[in-house]
Specification:
alpha+beta; Ribosomal Protein L9, domain 2; three-stranded antiparallel β-sheet; Ribosomal Protein L9, domain 1; 33% helix; 9 strands
């Protein structure tokens, strides 16, 4: 099934791309969600009419993503958590925690953009990828330290 993407989808392509997907994925997800339209001659003609506007919007989004990637690349986040004697955390550090910590530094990143495979459960330094835009990623350093409790 051939479709024209109405928005950028990381697994498929950018807005305006003509993609071939399995019929079930297109019929049950992309079309009802308004993320794509059928690649009919009328829709292809409309795409060609709007190609310049789409390209300028994509270029602007790419420039913003690259600027943000440069800003946060190598960013060092320190998170204090309660930990036991074996350096294992009571709880874990999730991508929501990292997004909140980044927001404290005036960097607005959605938690879904932080590519943390498993929650961090030990003390130490971890490198985490952040997907900022289509084909734009940055790496941040997360340093988990034990929370100092007063006795």
């Amino acid at each position: 099934m051939e479709l024209i993407l109405k928005e950028t989808i990381s697994a498929l392509g950018r807005e305006g791309d003509v993609v071939t997907v399995k019929p079930g994925y297109g019929r049950n997800y992309l079309l009802p969600q308004g993320k794509a339209v059928n690649a009919t001659t009328e829709n292809l003609f409309a795409l060609e009419q709007n190609r310049a506007a789409i390209q300028s919007r994509l270029a602007k989004d790419q420039a913003i993503a690259e600027k943000l990637a440069k800003k946060i690349s190598g960013f060092n986040i320190v998170i204090e958590q309660l930990a036991g004697d074996d350096e294992r955390l009571f709880g874990s550090v999730t991508n929501a925690d990292l997004a909140a910590k980044l927001e404290e530094s005036n960097v607005k990143i959605d938690k879904k953009q932080i590519l943390l495979i498993d929650p961090i459960k030990t003390i130490g330094e971890t490198r985490v990828q952040v997907k900022i835009g289509f084909d734009v990623t940055a790496e941040i350093v997360v340093n988990v330290v034990p929370l100092k409790t007063e006795k």
